[in-house]
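INFO batch 0412 | record 1 of 1 | parsing
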Amino acid sequence: MNILLTVILGGIVGWLGSIVMKTNAQMGMIANVVVGIIGSLLGFGVASWLGIAADNTIVQLLVALVGAIVLIAVLKRSRSSNRADAAISGLRRRRGAAVC
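INFO prediction complete | emitting tokens
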């Protein structure tokens, strides 16, 4: 029962995080669940490290949502930097081919 509840709440948190970060159209249901669960773990880890106590349900959901939002932001940033690196290396290859 706990696993089912974790998956459902993870999906909701991931879905809300994807709406906030405007990646809802890019993410499917499984990605929302994964981002929600990992983001919740990230959020609770950071909250614990900062000494923030998530005592009630509202605070717990907010901590999980912030964790999912941070995770999506990091993933977006890493994906965009990978695309930029690929574009730069593609330009170098084209220049090298034109010169040779």
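INFO post-check: The helical segments are 2-20, 29-50, 57-99.
INFO record closed
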